[in-house]
């Protein structure tokens, strides 16, 4: 685990930043509307990405032509819309518990079938863990 400490801290930090970003997006969406928020936030992302691209050289432009880039970009917009739209009605905690539980569910299938790399089959212990987590998610969301 100590060898992965940097990755663990980066992932944890991404979770913290994601909750703040989603809450801020929800507030922006109240003022500008959800579509205005998505366009504005995406525009800032394009500007930041362009600066990084220009500093890193144009050799990275080839990766933009990947069909996966279109899919992941569209998924990002859908996720941003879903999260920021849901926060005002069920709260940040419930939204992120649901987001994480959805990620647990889908990542278990991705790992089990090896959809994007080596397969990591589901074990009974993993399935029981996921069921316990889902019971907790159900309890938390029901209490909101």
Walk me through what this model shows.
The chain is mainly alpha-helical. The chain folds into 2 domains: 1-89, no CATH class; 91-144. The protein is built from 5 helices and no strands. It has helices spanning 5-32, 34-56, 67-90, 92-113, 124-143. Helix 1 (5-32) packs across helix 3 (67-90), helix 3 packs antiparallel against helix 4 and helix 4 runs antiparallel to helix 5.
Mean model confidence by pLDDT: 88
Task: Note the run of SSEs as H and E.
Answer: HHHHH
Rg over alpha carbons? 18 Å
Q: Which spans have pLDDT < 50 for at least 5 consecutive residues? A: none
End-to-end Cα distance, whole Å, is 35 Å
Task: Report strand %.
Answer: under 5%
Task: Give the number of DSSP strands.
Answer: 0
Structurally, how many domains make up the residues?
Answer: 2
InterPro entries: YdcZ
Pfam families: DMT_YdcZ
Keywords: Membrane, Transmembrane, Transmembrane helix
Organism: Neobacillus pocheonensis
């Amino acid at each position: 685990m100590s060898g992965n400490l940097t990755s663990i801290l980066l992932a944890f930090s991404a979770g913290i930043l994601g909750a703040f970003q989603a809450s801020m997006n929800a507030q922006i969406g109240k003022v500008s509307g959800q579509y205005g928020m998505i366009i504005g936030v995406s525009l800032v992302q394009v500007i930041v990405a362009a600066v990084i691209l220009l500093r890193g050289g144009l050799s990275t432009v080839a990766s933009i032509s990947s069909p996966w880039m279109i899919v992941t970009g569209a998924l990002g917009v859908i996720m941003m819309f879903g999260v920021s739209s849901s926060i005002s009605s069920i709260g940040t905690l419930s939204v992120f518990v649901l987001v994480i539980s959805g990620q647990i569910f889908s990542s278990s299938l991705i790992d089990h079938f090896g959809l994007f790399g080596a397969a990591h089959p589901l074990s009974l212990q993993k399935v029981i863990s996921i069921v316990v987590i889902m019971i907790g998610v159900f309890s938390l969301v029901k209490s909101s």
